[in-house]
Design brief:
By secondary structure, the protein is of the alpha/beta class. 41% of the residues lie in helices and 16% in strands. Helix 1 links the parallel strand 3 and strand 4.
Amino acid sequence: MISYPYKTHYLALPGNCNIAYADEGAGPGTLLFIHGLANYLPVWRKNIDELRKHYRCIAIDLPGSGLSDQKEHPYGVAFFADTVYQFISAMRLTNVCIVGHSMGGQIAMATVLRYPLCAARMVLCAPAGFERFTALDKTLYYSTLRMFDFMSSDEHSLRSTIENSFYRNSSQGEPMVRELIALMKTYKTSYYRKMIEACIKGMLEEPVYDALHTIQQPTLVIFGRQDALIPNKLLHHTTTEKLAAEAVKKMPHAALLVLPDCGHFVQWEKAAEVNQYIHAFMQQ
């Protein structure tokens, strides 16, 4: 069994959903960390270790990931947004800032769109949801995934995705890869694959882009300039910075930071800077 760097708590939510989470630190605000696809709560360890000095830091394993339950839930962006809202309600959290990475960023936006009063702020680290996909884009995307799945094992796919998420020294993700593969081996393969497929479909078929202008929460968006995953390089021939700027411009209370020499795992590669920016944002 994988041992997390923090004490692991569990919370039973409606729909027979058992959530694993870490709860560290204390302060006037609560940072609620939401990880991305096929990841887990320790992806935030470099941020929690510093920010728990000032805030209550809670990180969850989304259903189907990490140490949370492996069941046939109706996975997708709306399902995860409902889960986040149920977690906030059950824990009676107040003054919440949802911090989401990648798919977790799209989930964060979907959560405040569905439940506008559940959070006071958001921090989005390399969020999904800023790209728009045409019907042809989706067809090509799904075709590419099917071919990749045919030619690659789950372990190889996971390793490849994480390594490509770093701009420099992709080996720094090796401890994460080892832990995630160890966790994967405890899962029922059919459940894991269905979850991954449903999450990818959710990101494509449950967009938030057209509703960005209705988000009222002050929002800090942080991207790495050399993000290799956003935008999708096969489908969208634009830069990360341009894509992010166009989306953030639609949000009435959002600011964008693009960090140089940094990839998709911006909160890991540039942890010190990201922590400083989050702390300053929380003080505003």
